[in-house]
Predict the structure of CoA transferase.
Amino acid sequence: MAMPLGDIRIIELGHVIAGPLAAALLSDFGAEVIKIEAPGRGDMMRELGPKAQDGVGVWWKTLARNKRILALDWKSDAGREVLAKLVEGADVLVENFRPGVLERAGIGPEVLHQWNPDLVILRVSGYGQDGPMRKTPAFGRAAEAMSGLTHLTGFADGSPMHPGFPAADSTTGLMGALGIMIALFARERGRVRGQIVDLAVFEALLRLIDYHIPALTGAGVSPMRNGLRQPMDFAPGGTFRTKDGVWVTVSAGGAETARRLLRAVGGDSFAGDPRFATMEGISAHMSEIFDRLNEFVTAREFSEVEAEFALHDAVAAPVLSAENIVAHPQIAHRGDIVSVEGDATKVVGPVPRLSDTPGSVRWLGRRPGADTAEIMQELGCDLATIERLVEAGLIAVSPAGEETA
Protein backbone atom coordinates (compact mmCIF):
# COMPACT_ATOMS: atom_id res chain seq x y z
CA MET A 1 0.00 0.00 0.00
CA ALA A 2 1.33 3.42 -0.97
CA MET A 3 1.93 5.65 2.03
CA PRO A 4 0.44 9.18 2.00
CA LEU A 5 3.81 10.97 2.16
CA GLY A 6 5.76 8.45 0.12
CA ASP A 7 6.86 11.03 -2.46
CA ILE A 8 8.11 13.59 0.09
CA ARG A 9 11.85 13.83 0.78
CA ILE A 10 13.08 15.61 3.91
CA ILE A 11 16.67 16.60 4.66
CA GLU A 12 17.21 16.81 8.41
CA LEU A 13 20.01 18.97 9.76
CA GLY A 14 18.40 19.14 13.18
CA HIS A 15 19.61 17.63 16.40
CA VAL A 16 18.28 16.56 19.81
CA ILE A 17 14.44 16.60 19.87
CA ALA A 18 12.31 19.36 18.34
CA GLY A 19 13.43 19.37 14.70
CA PRO A 20 14.09 15.62 14.52
CA LEU A 21 10.68 14.83 16.02
CA ALA A 22 8.95 16.91 13.34
CA ALA A 23 10.70 14.82 10.68
CA ALA A 24 10.04 11.57 12.56
CA LEU A 25 6.30 12.25 12.75
CA LEU A 26 6.20 12.65 8.97
CA SER A 27 8.46 9.64 8.40
CA ASP A 28 5.81 7.47 10.08
CA PHE A 29 3.57 8.22 7.11
CA GLY A 30 6.12 7.48 4.44
CA ALA A 31 8.24 10.61 4.06
CA GLU A 32 11.82 9.75 3.16
CA VAL A 33 13.97 11.43 5.79
CA ILE A 34 17.73 11.70 5.33
CA LYS A 35 19.24 12.65 8.66
CA ILE A 36 22.65 14.27 8.36
CA GLU A 37 25.13 13.88 11.22
CA ALA A 38 28.72 15.08 11.53
CA PRO A 39 31.22 12.23 10.93
CA GLY A 40 32.46 10.89 14.24
CA ARG A 41 30.02 13.03 16.23
CA GLY A 42 26.41 12.00 15.96
CA ASP A 43 23.28 13.45 17.44
CA MET A 44 23.52 13.64 21.25
CA MET A 45 20.25 11.69 21.44
CA ARG A 46 22.31 8.61 20.65
CA GLU A 47 23.82 8.87 24.13
CA LEU A 48 21.09 10.55 26.17
CA GLY A 49 19.06 8.26 28.41
CA PRO A 50 19.12 4.48 28.89
CA LYS A 51 20.57 2.02 26.40
CA ALA A 52 18.80 -1.02 24.98
CA GLN A 53 20.35 -4.48 25.24
CA ASP A 54 22.09 -3.95 21.90
CA GLY A 55 23.83 -0.83 23.25
CA VAL A 56 21.79 1.66 21.23
CA GLY A 57 20.04 4.48 23.07
CA VAL A 58 16.30 3.84 23.28
CA TRP A 59 15.45 7.51 22.75
CA TRP A 60 17.53 7.49 19.58
CA LYS A 61 15.77 4.34 18.38
CA THR A 62 12.39 6.07 18.29
CA LEU A 63 13.48 9.62 17.40
CA ALA A 64 15.45 8.38 14.38
CA ARG A 65 13.04 5.67 13.32
CA ASN A 66 12.34 5.29 9.60
CA LYS A 67 15.25 7.66 8.83
CA ARG A 68 18.22 7.09 6.57
CA ILE A 69 21.49 8.15 8.20
CA LEU A 70 24.13 10.13 6.30
CA ALA A 71 27.39 11.06 8.03
CA LEU A 72 28.49 14.24 6.22
CA ASP A 73 30.56 17.30 7.07
CA TRP A 74 28.16 19.72 5.37
CA LYS A 75 30.21 22.76 6.39
CA SER A 76 33.14 21.71 4.17
CA ASP A 77 33.33 22.64 0.49
CA ALA A 78 32.90 19.04 -0.62
CA GLY A 79 30.12 18.49 1.92
CA ARG A 80 28.33 21.61 0.73
CA GLU A 81 28.34 20.21 -2.81
CA VAL A 82 26.75 17.00 -1.53
CA LEU A 83 24.18 18.98 0.45
CA ALA A 84 23.33 21.04 -2.64
CA LYS A 85 22.59 17.86 -4.62
CA LEU A 86 20.40 16.59 -1.79
CA VAL A 87 18.50 19.86 -1.53
CA GLU A 88 17.92 19.98 -5.29
CA GLY A 89 15.90 16.78 -5.02
CA ALA A 90 14.23 17.46 -1.67
CA ASP A 91 10.87 18.89 -0.62
CA VAL A 92 11.75 19.94 2.93
CA LEU A 93 14.80 20.87 4.97
CA VAL A 94 14.59 20.81 8.77
CA GLU A 95 17.10 22.61 10.99
CA ASN A 96 17.09 23.66 14.63
CA PHE A 97 20.34 25.49 15.16
CA ARG A 98 20.68 28.92 16.72
CA PRO A 99 19.71 31.73 14.34
CA GLY A 100 22.62 32.59 12.06
CA VAL A 101 24.34 29.18 12.01
CA LEU A 102 23.20 28.32 8.48
CA GLU A 103 23.95 31.84 7.25
CA ARG A 104 27.51 31.74 8.62
CA ALA A 105 28.01 28.42 6.86
CA GLY A 106 26.91 30.02 3.59
CA ILE A 107 23.69 28.01 3.27
CA GLY A 108 21.01 30.39 4.54
CA PRO A 109 17.49 30.31 3.08
CA GLU A 110 18.50 32.51 0.13
CA VAL A 111 21.13 29.99 -0.94
CA LEU A 112 18.87 27.00 -0.26
CA HIS A 113 16.14 28.55 -2.39
CA GLN A 114 18.64 29.21 -5.16
CA TRP A 115 19.36 25.49 -5.14
CA ASN A 116 15.65 24.62 -4.94
CA PRO A 117 13.01 27.39 -5.13
CA ASP A 118 10.30 24.91 -4.04
CA LEU A 119 12.03 23.89 -0.81
CA VAL A 120 10.07 24.21 2.45
CA ILE A 121 12.46 25.13 5.27
CA LEU A 122 11.50 24.45 8.89
CA ARG A 123 13.64 26.61 11.18
CA VAL A 124 13.28 25.77 14.87
CA SER A 125 15.04 27.94 17.43
CA GLY A 126 14.67 28.93 21.06
CA TYR A 127 13.05 32.32 20.50
CA GLY A 128 12.63 32.67 16.73
CA GLN A 129 14.71 33.98 13.85
CA ASP A 130 14.23 37.64 14.77
CA GLY A 131 13.54 39.86 17.77
CA PRO A 132 15.59 40.99 20.77
CA MET A 133 16.08 37.40 22.05
CA ARG A 134 16.98 35.75 18.73
CA LYS A 135 20.56 35.06 19.85
CA THR A 136 19.68 34.02 23.40
CA PRO A 137 20.47 30.33 24.02
CA ALA A 138 17.51 28.24 25.13
CA PHE A 139 16.55 24.68 25.96
CA GLY A 140 13.11 23.16 26.35
CA ARG A 141 12.82 23.96 30.04
CA ALA A 142 13.40 27.66 29.34
CA ALA A 143 10.67 27.48 26.71
CA GLU A 144 8.30 25.76 29.14
CA ALA A 145 8.90 28.59 31.58
CA MET A 146 8.31 31.26 28.93
CA SER A 147 5.09 29.67 27.66
CA GLY A 148 3.40 29.73 31.06
CA LEU A 149 3.31 25.94 31.48
CA THR A 150 5.75 25.88 34.39
CA HIS A 151 3.87 28.66 36.18
CA LEU A 152 0.66 26.63 35.92
CA THR A 153 2.16 23.37 37.21
CA GLY A 154 2.69 22.57 40.89
CA PHE A 155 1.10 23.41 44.22
CA ALA A 156 -0.20 26.91 44.89
CA ASP A 157 2.15 27.41 47.84
CA GLY A 158 5.08 25.61 46.24
CA SER A 159 7.57 26.14 43.45
CA PRO A 160 6.61 26.06 39.76
CA MET A 161 7.28 22.65 38.24
CA HIS A 162 8.20 21.18 34.87
CA PRO A 163 6.28 18.17 33.49
CA GLY A 164 7.82 14.72 33.38
CA PHE A 165 8.65 14.85 29.66
CA PRO A 166 10.22 17.44 27.32
CA ALA A 167 6.91 19.19 26.66
CA ALA A 168 8.31 22.20 24.83
CA ASP A 169 10.51 20.20 22.46
CA SER A 170 7.84 17.58 21.81
CA THR A 171 5.02 20.02 21.11
CA THR A 172 7.39 22.01 18.89
CA GLY A 173 8.04 18.85 16.89
CA LEU A 174 4.31 18.36 16.48
CA MET A 175 3.73 22.00 15.50
CA GLY A 176 6.72 21.84 13.15
CA ALA A 177 5.23 18.85 11.35
CA LEU A 178 1.96 20.78 11.03
CA GLY A 179 3.81 23.80 9.66
CA ILE A 180 5.58 21.66 7.07
CA MET A 181 2.32 20.12 5.91
CA ILE A 182 0.60 23.52 5.65
CA ALA A 183 3.52 24.86 3.58
CA LEU A 184 3.49 21.78 1.34
CA PHE A 185 -0.26 22.15 0.88
CA ALA A 186 0.14 25.80 -0.12
CA ARG A 187 2.86 24.78 -2.59
CA GLU A 188 0.72 21.95 -3.96
CA ARG A 189 -2.15 24.36 -4.58
CA GLY A 190 0.17 26.72 -6.45
CA ARG A 191 -0.22 29.59 -4.00
CA VAL A 192 3.51 29.83 -3.23
CA ARG A 193 6.68 27.96 -3.98
CA GLY A 194 9.09 27.16 -1.16
CA GLN A 195 8.79 29.14 2.06
CA ILE A 196 10.21 29.33 5.59
CA VAL A 197 8.43 27.96 8.63
CA ASP A 198 9.87 29.99 11.54
CA LEU A 199 9.04 28.32 14.86
CA ALA A 200 10.25 29.28 18.33
CA VAL A 201 10.27 26.45 20.87
CA PHE A 202 8.10 28.31 23.39
CA GLU A 203 5.40 29.12 20.83
CA ALA A 204 3.86 25.65 20.43
CA LEU A 205 3.11 25.37 24.15
CA LEU A 206 1.94 28.98 24.26
CA ARG A 207 -0.61 28.15 21.56
CA LEU A 208 -1.66 24.79 23.01
CA ILE A 209 -2.19 26.07 26.56
CA ASP A 210 -4.41 28.61 24.83
CA TYR A 211 -6.73 29.70 27.65
CA HIS A 212 -4.40 31.58 29.98
CA ILE A 213 -3.97 34.68 27.80
CA PRO A 214 -7.68 35.26 27.04
CA ALA A 215 -8.45 34.55 30.71
CA LEU A 216 -6.17 37.42 31.70
CA THR A 217 -6.95 39.87 28.91
CA GLY A 218 -10.65 39.11 28.54
CA ALA A 219 -11.77 38.29 32.06
CA GLY A 220 -9.04 39.82 34.21
CA VAL A 221 -8.26 36.42 35.74
CA SER A 222 -4.64 35.30 36.10
CA PRO A 223 -4.48 31.47 36.13
CA MET A 224 -2.37 30.04 38.95
CA ARG A 225 -1.03 26.57 39.65
CA ASN A 226 -3.36 24.69 41.95
CA GLY A 227 -1.74 21.44 42.99
CA LEU A 228 -3.98 18.42 42.45
CA ARG A 229 -6.80 20.64 41.26
CA GLN A 230 -7.18 22.56 38.02
CA PRO A 231 -5.92 26.14 37.70
CA MET A 232 -8.82 28.55 38.19
CA ASP A 233 -11.04 25.67 39.45
CA PHE A 234 -13.33 26.10 36.45
CA ALA A 235 -14.54 22.47 36.65
CA PRO A 236 -14.44 19.72 39.28
CA GLY A 237 -11.43 17.48 39.17
CA GLY A 238 -8.30 16.38 40.90
CA THR A 239 -5.95 13.51 41.58
CA PHE A 240 -6.54 11.24 44.55
CA ARG A 241 -5.11 8.01 45.98
CA THR A 242 -7.41 5.10 46.67
CA LYS A 243 -7.31 2.97 49.80
CA ASP A 244 -5.27 0.31 47.96
CA GLY A 245 -2.72 2.83 46.67
CA VAL A 246 -3.97 3.50 43.12
CA TRP A 247 -3.71 7.11 41.96
CA VAL A 248 -6.89 8.21 40.20
CA THR A 249 -7.62 11.34 38.21
CA VAL A 250 -11.18 12.65 38.29
CA SER A 251 -12.63 15.26 35.96
CA ALA A 252 -15.79 16.75 34.46
CA GLY A 253 -16.15 19.18 31.59
CA GLY A 254 -19.61 20.70 31.97
CA ALA A 255 -22.49 21.18 34.39
CA GLU A 256 -24.22 17.89 33.56
CA THR A 257 -21.07 15.77 33.73
CA ALA A 258 -20.10 17.61 36.92
CA ARG A 259 -23.41 16.69 38.57
CA ARG A 260 -22.89 13.05 37.58
CA LEU A 261 -19.56 13.25 39.34
CA LEU A 262 -21.13 14.83 42.43
CA ARG A 263 -23.85 12.18 42.45
CA ALA A 264 -21.24 9.42 42.40
CA VAL A 265 -19.51 10.75 45.52
CA GLY A 266 -22.40 12.38 47.40
CA GLY A 267 -25.69 11.00 46.15
CA ASP A 268 -28.71 12.80 44.72
CA SER A 269 -28.94 15.32 47.55
CA PHE A 270 -25.39 16.54 46.99
CA ALA A 271 -25.70 16.64 43.20
CA GLY A 272 -29.08 18.39 43.44
CA ASP A 273 -27.89 21.15 45.76
CA PRO A 274 -29.12 24.45 44.23
CA ARG A 275 -25.61 25.86 44.62
CA PHE A 276 -24.47 23.42 41.93
CA ALA A 277 -27.11 24.27 39.33
CA THR A 278 -24.56 26.06 37.13
CA MET A 279 -20.85 25.78 36.44
CA GLU A 280 -20.38 29.19 38.07
CA GLY A 281 -21.92 27.84 41.25
CA ILE A 282 -19.88 24.67 41.11
CA SER A 283 -16.69 26.67 40.60
CA ALA A 284 -17.53 28.93 43.54
CA HIS A 285 -17.66 25.93 45.90
CA MET A 286 -14.75 23.92 44.52
CA SER A 287 -12.96 23.49 47.85
CA GLU A 288 -16.00 21.74 49.32
CA ILE A 289 -16.36 19.57 46.21
CA PHE A 290 -12.66 18.68 46.20
CA ASP A 291 -12.84 17.63 49.85
CA ARG A 292 -15.87 15.42 49.14
CA LEU A 293 -14.08 13.80 46.20
CA ASN A 294 -10.98 13.20 48.29
CA GLU A 295 -13.01 11.72 51.14
CA PHE A 296 -14.86 9.37 48.81
CA VAL A 297 -11.85 8.09 46.85
CA THR A 298 -9.38 7.69 49.71
CA ALA A 299 -11.84 5.59 51.74
CA ARG A 300 -12.31 2.99 48.98
CA GLU A 301 -10.30 0.58 46.90
CA PHE A 302 -9.92 1.36 43.22
CA SER A 303 -12.35 -1.33 42.08
CA GLU A 304 -15.07 0.25 44.22
CA VAL A 305 -14.34 3.75 42.95
CA GLU A 306 -14.30 2.57 39.34
CA ALA A 307 -17.60 0.70 39.72
CA GLU A 308 -19.40 3.60 41.42
CA PHE A 309 -18.22 6.14 38.88
CA ALA A 310 -19.18 3.82 36.01
CA LEU A 311 -22.64 3.45 37.54
CA HIS A 312 -23.12 7.23 37.27
CA ASP A 313 -21.34 7.57 33.91
CA ALA A 314 -18.64 9.68 35.56
CA VAL A 315 -14.91 9.67 34.84
CA ALA A 316 -12.30 8.26 37.21
CA ALA A 317 -9.19 7.06 35.40
CA PRO A 318 -6.17 5.36 36.94
CA VAL A 319 -2.81 7.07 36.47
CA LEU A 320 -0.81 4.62 34.36
CA SER A 321 2.90 3.89 34.62
CA ALA A 322 4.92 2.68 31.65
CA GLU A 323 4.39 -0.88 32.89
CA ASN A 324 0.63 -0.31 33.00
CA ILE A 325 0.64 1.20 29.51
CA VAL A 326 2.35 -1.74 27.77
CA ALA A 327 -0.07 -4.17 29.46
CA HIS A 328 -3.27 -2.16 28.94
CA PRO A 329 -5.93 -3.98 26.85
CA GLN A 330 -7.32 -0.85 25.18
CA ILE A 331 -3.86 0.33 24.18
CA ALA A 332 -3.08 -3.16 22.89
CA HIS A 333 -6.35 -3.25 20.94
CA ARG A 334 -5.53 0.07 19.30
CA GLY A 335 -2.07 -1.21 18.33
CA ASP A 336 -0.41 1.82 19.90
CA ILE A 337 2.74 -0.02 21.00
CA VAL A 338 4.70 -1.52 18.12
CA SER A 339 7.98 -3.26 17.39
CA VAL A 340 10.08 -4.10 14.35
CA GLU A 341 11.51 -7.45 13.39
CA GLY A 342 14.84 -8.18 15.02
CA ASP A 343 14.65 -5.50 17.73
CA ALA A 344 13.29 -6.14 21.22
CA THR A 345 12.66 -2.44 21.85
CA LYS A 346 9.04 -1.39 21.47
CA VAL A 347 7.96 2.15 20.64
CA VAL A 348 4.77 4.15 20.38
CA GLY A 349 3.27 3.65 16.94
CA PRO A 350 2.16 6.27 14.41
CA VAL A 351 -0.50 8.76 15.46
CA PRO A 352 -3.10 9.56 14.17
CA ARG A 353 -4.73 6.47 12.71
CA LEU A 354 -5.68 6.75 9.03
CA SER A 355 -8.24 4.28 7.72
CA ASP A 356 -6.81 3.80 4.22
CA THR A 357 -3.22 5.03 4.36
CA PRO A 358 -1.97 4.21 7.87
CA GLY A 359 1.52 5.00 9.07
CA SER A 360 4.12 2.41 10.05
CA VAL A 361 7.41 2.00 11.87
CA ARG A 362 9.67 0.30 9.36
CA TRP A 363 12.93 0.39 11.31
CA LEU A 364 14.33 2.02 14.43
CA GLY A 365 17.25 4.46 14.67
CA ARG A 366 20.33 3.13 12.89
CA ARG A 367 24.05 3.32 13.55
CA PRO A 368 26.17 6.34 12.45
CA GLY A 369 26.67 6.47 8.69
CA ALA A 370 24.35 3.52 8.13
CA ASP A 371 23.12 4.79 4.74
CA THR A 372 26.02 7.02 3.71
CA ALA A 373 27.42 4.80 0.95
CA GLU A 374 24.00 4.11 -0.56
CA ILE A 375 22.96 7.77 -0.54
CA MET A 376 26.26 8.90 -2.05
CA GLN A 377 25.88 6.36 -4.85
CA GLU A 378 22.35 7.62 -5.49
CA LEU A 379 23.86 11.09 -5.93
CA GLY A 380 26.20 9.74 -8.60
CA CYS A 381 29.40 9.13 -6.60
CA ASP A 382 31.45 6.10 -7.52
CA LEU A 383 33.17 3.89 -4.95
CA ALA A 384 36.54 5.56 -5.45
CA THR A 385 35.07 8.98 -4.71
CA ILE A 386 33.29 7.63 -1.64
CA GLU A 387 36.52 6.09 -0.34
CA ARG A 388 38.38 9.36 -0.93
CA LEU A 389 35.76 11.34 1.02
CA VAL A 390 35.89 8.81 3.86
CA GLU A 391 39.68 9.08 4.04
CA ALA A 392 39.37 12.88 4.16
CA GLY A 393 36.92 12.63 7.07
CA LEU A 394 34.18 14.39 5.11
CA ILE A 395 31.80 11.43 5.24
CA ALA A 396 31.65 8.25 7.33
CA VAL A 397 30.17 4.85 6.63
CA SER A 398 29.14 2.03 8.94
CA PRO A 399 31.37 -1.04 9.02
CA ALA A 400 30.17 -3.84 6.78
CA GLY A 401 27.27 -5.73 8.30
CA GLU A 402 26.19 -2.89 10.61
CA GLU A 403 24.33 -0.70 8.13
CA THR A 404 20.88 -1.55 9.41
CA ALA A 405 21.75 -2.31 13.00
Notes: Residues 167-188 form the longest helix (22 residues). The chain has a mean pLDDT of 93. The longest strand covers residues 32-37.
